[in-house]
Amino acid sequence: MTDVDAAKLRALALALLTQGEGINRRSGQFLGQLVGETYPLSPKQYAWLEKLAERAGLSDQFAGLENVEQ
Prior knowledge:
The chain has one domain. It contains 4 helices and no strands. The protein is globular and about 30 Å long.
């Protein structure tokens, strides 16, 4: 994962946490981990993040994130 990818991921997670709508405790913990320390996402985590972004209307920020573990 490049520094640019990490910054995009961190910004999206922070935006989702700041908005706070529809974020439960488990989602908040996941997003908090991404803000604190970014890491390559598993396919399941990537899909979860996409779903959270869509619900919050932040699909445009999610577009272009390609840091799924292969």
